[in-house]
Structures are given as C-alpha cells and as structure tokens.
C-alpha cells in the first residue's frame, strides 16, 4: 500500500501582479523556540517541501510562499516564514500584503491594524476599507553608497547597497528602457551583476549575500519605475515592497525624500506601490501601500509515488 499523500492547503493571491502562495494548513510542525529557530528547522529538515510548494509542477519561479504560523507573542496576529524557488526571504512586502488579504478572506482579520512576526522582526500592517494594505516595514538603511563592480560583458556598474528587509543593490545608471519588452535583457544584466558582486566579495552587512538587484529609470506615471531581480533569478512583477523600502532609505539619506512625503514606485509591468517613511529613533521606517487579489484556493497533493513530488528545482537563466 502506498503511503497516504501529504495534503497542504494553500491560498494564492497576487499583489500588483506578483504572486503569493499562503500555506494555511497541512504543513508539518516546525521545531524551535523562536521564528529564526523554526526557519532553521524548515531549512534543514523540510526544504523539500519548500520546493514542493513553490516550484513546478505545482508552482513556478515567480511565486513567493508564505508559511502561516501561530505568533510567539499572542498580542500579534500571526507569524510567517517567506520562501521562494531559491530559498528563504527575511521579509517580503508584496507577500505581506497578500498575507493580510488572505487573512481577511479567511475571516481572521477585518479592516484595521494587523501585526505579523517575520524572521527579521515584527511588522505592522493596516488593512484599509478599500482592500488596499499598508505595510510598515522593518527599519531600513543604506549600507554603502556608489559601490562599483566590474560586470563581465557590461563593464563597471555602480550602485548602492541597502537593506529593506532583504539586501539590495540599487542601480540608477544602466542601458535599459525599463519595460516588459526588455525583461529578458534586464534579467541577464541583473543576474550578471549579482554574480559579479558575489565573485568580488561585495556583500551586505556581516557578509550577507546581496540577493536582490534593482534598476531604476524615470516614469511618466510615478516617481520612478523599477525592475527587480529576485534571488531565484525571476523578476518581481510588483515594485517590490522590500526593494521600495531600500529605495526610500537611500532617498531619505540623500535628502531627496522628506518624512511622510509620498514616493510612488512603478513596477516593470506598470503596477504601483505608494511609499513613505517616518523617522523612529533616527531610523528610517518605510511604509508601502498596495493591493492584492485572491486568485485561487487549492490542496497540494504530495505523493511519494510521484517522481516530481518535491518539485522540479529551477535553474538559473543567466550568470
Ligand atoms: O515585495 O518585498 C517584496 C518582494 C521580495 C521578493 C519578491 N517580492
């Protein structure tokens, strides 16, 4: 007799075009006395289920998974571990917006404040009456300005290294007109930059890998348009919540954005986030507002009889 398959329930949404898959039940219990410890248990013992949930044949390389957990502090609404085709994310802005809308769909939250424990700290969100969600992110900052790296095939590329809940390399000068037609070329360029940063030992603080690359250009409809390469070498369809936070931190440090001033960040597909920041104890705390829509509800069936039960790992399209 074959073993019973593992059944994992998920709810899918997209936030400004970028997909989130919230795991609502059926996932094995994680061990650990903190969210970071649970993440380590996930990474060490259950990584095959990360791949099963987000990779083909059940998912694809753009999906961000969000494992919904009980909070450690009961005054918070929930805890979450974000993951994708390549591994795990500290925070995820679009994913948090998708999570809040999923909690609303499940009847667990109503318009008003929602507080969520993430691996990099507790974030608060506000679910608005119109269905949009504002995420008040973790404090964000620029680590280094104007860092130059030689990129094979492209020459020297300069950018800022900044933290917005994940590590980003933010590039203003590049040869692209950011838009859907250039996605292939921009993917190749940003993947090459990511590779060059790693090869040259250029990192975030404490040697952290810079796993998101973000390029900017002017926009007719917003303050800026971006293209963001995510860790698994797919691109963010949304303007990227943590990437927009990193951008806001750089603008604030350059004196180009005032506290509470609005910054509209457009994505490569034309969707938008509205961002701003407040200063708390001298630190930039960005807020990002966007809208998510629920698109499906499913049970994933993971049977050991299936040769691709644990997903087809995604390769890197370019180095
Ligand atoms: O919205 O923060 C974000 C994000 C990170 C990776 C994909 N989206």
Give the tags.
319 residues; alpha+beta; 8-stranded mixed β-barrel; 5 helices; 16 strands; binds pyrrole-2-carboxylate
Question: Could you please describe the fold and organization of this structure?
Answer:
This protein is α+β, with helices and mostly antiparallel strands. Helix content is 19%, strand content 38%. It contains 5 helices and 16 strands. It has helices at residues 35-45, 47-54, 93-105, 183-199, 241-253; strands at 6-15, 18-25, 64-69, 78-83, 88-89, 112-118, 121-127, 132-136, 141-151, 155-163, 167-171, 212-217, 224-229, 263-266, 272-280, 283-302. The chain has an 8-stranded mixed barrel with strand order 1-2-3-4-6-7-8-16. The termini are far apart. The mean pLDDT is 96. Pyrrole-2-carboxylate (PYC) binds next to α3 and α5.
- From the helix content, strand content and strand pairing, which structural class follows? alpha+beta
| Strand neighbour order, sheet with most strands | 1-2-3-4-6-7-8-16
**Outline, from the CA principal axes?**
globular
- The number of helical segments is 5
Tell me how many strands there are: 16
Mean pLDDT: 96
- Percentage of helical residues? 10-25%
Strand percentage lies at 35-45%
Show unreliable segments. Answer: none
Ions, cofactors, ligands: which are bound? pyrrole-2-carboxylate
N-end to C-end Cα span: 45 Å
Largest sheet: 8 strands, mixed, barrel
How big is the Rg? 19 Å
Order of helices and strands: EEHHEEEHEEEEEEHEEHEEE
